Amino acid sequence: MASAKRSCYNLYMSEFPNELRCDHLILLVDDDPLLNAISAKLLLKPGGRITLIYSEHSMQPAERLEHWLHQNLTSAVIEPVQAQLCILEHTPASIYYRLDNALTQGTGNIICLNYSNDGMRSIACHAYRAVEQWVKIHKYDVKPIFSYLDARKHCLFFDPPYEEQIYIGDKLTLSLEDMLYLRGIALVEAGSSPHLFLPKTARAIAADYSQRHRARVSVYQRWKEKELYPKCYMDKAGLWRRKSDLRKIRLAWPEDKAIAAALQEETGQHGQAELDIEAAQHAAGFSDPRDFCRWLDTFWLESCVIQALQSLPDSLRPHQIIQGAKVDLHRNDVSLDLVAIRGYQLFSFSFNSAVGTDAQAQNALKLNLFEHFMRTRQIGGWLACAALVCVNEDSDRLQDAAYKQIDPYGSARVFGLPHLEELRAAIGYWFENQPRARPSKMLSVAY
Asked: Is the model's pLDDT at 444 over the cut of 80?
């Protein structure tokens, strides 16, 4: 396994080989055309032709792909071919007829059939044979290439005589808008580039949790329970108080000197006896005092992750980081706390500051992780990855549960107390080792 990965890694440092690009690319379109879009961007020569093969179940994805290709490969000629006109749509004769018609209209010297979509296996078999037979009968001087994109390994495989294995994870980038459009998901709110709220305070809070987690005592957690919640929560409602009420509230400073000093500095309240929520809200850049309270409660974790993402080395840093996007998923608006796009892979982060080691607390966090993972896959496709960032001291147990029940490939990840002080290294390791059979519990690399 290690040698195969190393071979793939060495290949991706060079440009994509021009001899493996084609004049005529044939794509098999399934319900998710993301792999088709990736293959087209890599395999097609400028001015080439694309033929889309799709069944009645993938007509709309094929239409979206056709439009996207027109926008992004302006020199390409798109020829959708639909295999649904008769009851024999998936028979060899039906596929052969449609491919024969498409190939006869013009091919160039190199034809490539890319059969990446697993949902089109029956069609792929017939299409493969049809291309081989057409080349033998009509064009002996035309060279056929057959390729397959293994999305889990992020590698393009080519059939003999080429037998190439090329890492493509860094060969192209897609935006969140591209991914959503190709998957037929509406973007309700575009979100924004990440705004880093109170970075020094976030680091100080993370250090407090990390240094004290073995003793199961966090000064900041005690401050939240004794000061933030009693004064800022509505009684027994589990909701923050109204904005007008929060603006009048003063809080005692956290007992941890590093946290208090950072919070005073970043909210401009040096020398103040108490933390003025309204003044702190405006100084820190929050538009709503409830957002400031949410940050003090949970979303300081988001600031930690943003800092980690922005400080990753160039080879690992996402090309797009979005905060607060909202999408229409099955007619329900779904908010995304923080999304990072690296290459053509979506990484979504969710945050939970709940504490507790009993079964009920563990089950609540596990449910949070599982729901977040499934929602992320619905939005970003089965290549998408999801992480839960929390202050749970037994994150390994949650990780094992994810591995056994929903994801054996490391696409669902838990970052808990053991990772907070080395969050940059932990996230970088996760990015670099996608995909992976099972995530390691201990990190031995640093960036």
From this structure: no
- Among 3.10.350.10, 3.40.50.10770, 3.30.750.200, 3.10.50.40, name the CATH number for the domain at 2-172: 3.40.50.10770
This prediction has a pTM of 0.87
Condensed to tens digits (0 to 9), the pLDDT of residues 233-275 reads: 986 556 899 999 999 999 999 999 999 999 999 999 988 999 9
* Number of CB atoms found within 10 A of residue 268's CB: 13
For the chain, give the longest Cα–Cα distance: 88
- Looking at 159-198, list the stretches that DSSP marks H as alpha helix, in order from N- to C-terminal side: 176-182
C-alpha dihedral (83, 84, 86, 90), degrees to nearest 10: 50
Burial letters 286-321, b for 16+ CB under 10 A, else e: beebbbbbbbbbbbbbbbbbbbbbeebeeebebeeb
What is the mean pLDDT of the segment spanning 67-75?
81
Does residue 115 contact residue 126 with C-beta atoms inside 8 Å?
Answer: no
φ, ψ of residue 149 to 5 degrees: the values are -95, 110
Amino acid (one-letter) located at 221 = Q
Q: What is the pLDDT of residue 213?
A: 59
